[in-house]
Specification:
The structure holds 2 protein chains of 2 kinds. By secondary structure, chain A is of the alpha+beta class. Chain A contains 5 helices and 13 strands. Classes of the chains: A alpha+beta, B mainly beta. At the A-B interface, strand 6 and helix 4 of A face strand 1, strand 4, strand 5, strand 16 and strand 17 of B.
């Protein structure tokens, strides 16, 4: 019995050791960035969510988008993923389907299905820094930006947040000069992100407004992206969030662009 | 033989969904529950649509045509209903075009007031099989406004008159079965009775008539004899396709008829649609920071007897395209297309006819103001015909429901005899307002 307790105790110590060391020596910035990237984009084997988007311009005019997102990880590491996005509102984009295969080390593959023409259109994806469906969010805000593309510096770890500043390795490819993330120490969710333009002015500000624990995973269910230069903003609300849905691999093929995977869109 | 096998497979596909329906959420047939059943049925219909008013005016007079090329109001209604394991879809357009000469009820063409775009039932009888039956719009291939292996009907009149690009594809009554396997998939489309393109026939757009050596048009409309007969004068289209490491490849086969008149019957003085087979393939992939594609097709005319000297010769068609997103919501694309006529054993159709036709296309799309404003330019230019067609479109979404659009369709060429040059008098400017619901 005593031996068993001793072994258990040793095992526990072994498990805790790296974590304690990390706390003692301050966490590596690469680790913070990797964990935050995991928490935002890779939790669970897959995820389904309904997203209601309100795009509000400087004059207060509102445009709405409603979509269902089916995201699935491929492989164990936080690498390849596939996204299926079905639009249900507004009427002029209703039944439109957007599909993306997120690749590591090369451009993503993207397709669009236009139901009125029964057309599967492959779309060029070299620029992830363009607006996602007319909102203040960019494609990379929705599907992630490779952590390797930026250099990261831990600016502070006072209070509840790790503050990380990131600068692009290839400045010519992006619209920002740097961005700063406030990463929650307990959940590893970035609660605020500030993007600065080439001149160093504050350009876009992301704020996670509400976080809920769903299926054991801390999940942002309300978020805002503001454009400080144009005065516009986009509000996102996530509902019906489910992790580990059991999305089949083959949903992300031409077959389900043409014929909706209705079972998973409800 | 292949054709009968396909028909058999399609019919066999009916059986499983019939069972699926009976144990699904279909209501019982008790008369007393009839009303509830109807209420339930209609309550679950997902409806949407739009109304659109569009006016297009010609830039120069055409002795055969009216000064306006379009003056129409259109209402599109779309309904979808799940029924057990199947889905029903209906899309119908009701419209009134003041420029049209006729307004009687009919199912297609521009002389009518009703266009049934879709009326289908969709189901999956087997894990690896999808079926879609009924009137539907079908598209495949890699071209942008150019088609080689897509021999589904096109509405060239709508395209040239200045309607929305959506109307370039005309619907067809078809049975489509798709089979999905690990590496490869197969589409089988069977059209029980041949459907032609809605081709330029002079009714709304004048054309060059080689018989008179001059332009011709309304009221002298091209007359044709179309192959008719259910399950006899049919069309079969096959596509075998797969994606390998993000590279999409496909092989195609078509067995049917020339979609626009490809021959003529001199004794009757009418256009005909000779038999045609097409074999082809395509590839599409991400390349050089954009999307590259190539497609080839061999048009194999089937009526080569000396009795049909005016039938089109065999042709080889090739298409290569490249599209790139330059950032800042700016996309550019180029295509190169050639069609080469091959000599057939029958008489050649006139020595003056050019044997190779080249077309280069350019597309520029730029979006502004949170993607509410779209500028789109598409140009067809033919170095061999020294002619072309420029399509410019500006659209602005006032809000989620209302879109304003302005279009410019310009045809240019040195003479009236060339492919695009013959339509010079159809050049038009248009304006439209669309309200979606």
């Amino acid at each position: 019995m005593k031996t068993a307790v001793l072994i258990f105790g040793l095992g526990l110590a072994a498990l805790l050791l790296p974590a304690q060391m990390a706390v003692a020596e301050a966490p590596d910035v690469a680790e913070i960035v990797a964990k935050a990237n995991h928490t935002v984009f890779y939790q669970g084997p897959d995820q389904k969510a309904r997203v209601d988007m309100r795009i509000i311009d400087k004059q207060g005019r509102i445009r709405k988008r409603q979509l269902t997102l089916l995201r699935r990880n491929f492989g164990d590491a936080d690498g390849e993923q596939k996204y299926y996005v079905y639009f249900s509102k507004p009427a002029d984009v209703k039944k439109l389907v957007f599909m993306a295969w997120k690749n590591i080390g090369r451009d993503d593959d993207r397709w669009l299905y236009l139901p009125a023409l029964d057309l599967v259109k492959r779309i060029s994806a070299s620029d992830g820094r363009t607006s996602f469906v007319g909102s203040n969010f960019f494609y990379e805000d929705v599907s992630g930006r490779e952590t390797e593309e930026d250099t990261h510096t831990l600016l502070s770890e006072d209070g509840d947040f790790f503050v990380v500043e990131s600068k692009p390795k290839r400045a010519g490819d992006v619209e920002f000069s740097s961005y700063k993330n406030w990463v929650d120490k307990s959940t590893y969710l970035p609660m605020k992100t500030e993007y600065r333009d080439k001149a160093g002015n504050l350009h876009r500000v992301y704020t996670a407004v509400t976080v809920e624990v769903i299926g054991g995973f801390p999940t942002v269910v309300d978020a805002i992206m503001e454009n400080k230069i144009t005065g516009g903003r986009t509000e996102l609300h996530y509902s019906d969030v489910v992790y580990a849905v059991g999305l089949p691999k083959n949903i992300y093929t031409e077959r389900f662009l043409r014929k909706l995977p209705r079972k998973y869109l409800k | 033989m292949l054709r009968w096998l396909c028909i058999f497979i399609l019919i066999a596909g009916f059986a499983p969904p019939t069972f699926a329906l009976s144990d699904g959420d279909l209501p019982s047939s008790h008369m007393a529950e009839g009303k509830d059943w109807w209420r339930d049925f209609t309550a679950q219909i997902d409806m949407s649509g739009f109304t659109e008013t569009r006016v297009a005016v010609r830039l120069q007079g055409d002795q055969f045509q009216k000064p306006f090329s379009l003056a129409e109001t259109r209402f599109q209604f779309e309904a979808e209903r799940e029924l057990g394991a199947a889905t029903l879809n209906l899309t119908a357009d009701v419209y009134f075009d003041a420029v049209s000469d006729q307004h009687e009820f009919g199912f297609d063409g521009d002389a009518h007031i009703f266009d049934l775009r879709q009326a289908t039932i969709e189901f999956s009888p087997l894990d690896f099989m999808d079926v879609k039956l009924g009137r539907q719009v079908l598209t495949w291939g890699t071209g942008d406004l150019l088609f080689i292996n897509d021999l589904f009907p096109k509405d060239w009149r709508a395209f040239l008159l200045g309607r929305d690009d959506e109307y370039l594809k005309a619907p067809t009554q078809a049975m489509k079965a798709s089979f999905y396997f690990d590496r490869l998939s197969l589409d089988v489309v069977y059209v029980p009775e041949f459907v032609t393109d809605r081709f330029v026939n002079g009714s709304r757009i004048s054309y060059f008539d080689p018989k008179t050596g001059d332009l011709n048009g309304r009221p002298d409309v091209v007359t044709t004899i179309k192959p008719e007969g259910w399950l006899e004068k049919d069309e079969l289209s096959l596509r075998l396709f797969g994606t390998f490491a993000s590279v999409e490849v496909a092989a195609y086969y078509y067995d049917g008829y020339w979609k626009s008149p490809g021959g003529s019957d001199i004794s009757l003085g009418v256009g005909t649609f000779p038999r045609l087979k097409v074999y082809g393939s395509s590839v599409r992939s991400a390349i050089w920071g954009g999307i590259g594609s190539a497609e080839i097709g061999y048009y194999d005319g089937q009526d080569r007897s000396s009795m049909a000297p005016f039938n089109r010769n065999d042709e080889v068609r090739f298409l290569a395209g490249y599209e790139r997103d330059l950032g800042g919501d700016l996309t550019i694309a180029f295509q190169y297309n050639f069609e080469r006529k091959l000599r057939s054993s029958a008489l050649s159709t006139g020595a003056s006819e050019q044997r190779t036709h080249h077309v280069i296309t350019q597309r520029i799309t730029k979006q502004l103001w949170q993607q509410t404003f779209t500028f789109s330019l598409f140009n067809f230019y033919s170095p061999s015909g020294n002619d072309g067609h420029l399509r410019l479109k500006l659209s602005y979404k006032i809000n989620d429901a209302v879109k304003l659009e302005s279009g410019f369709n310009f045809f240019y060429g040195r003479t009236d005899e060339t492919f695009f040059g013959q339509f010079q008098k159809a050049s038009n400017v248009s304006a439209a307002m669309k309200v979606s619901f």
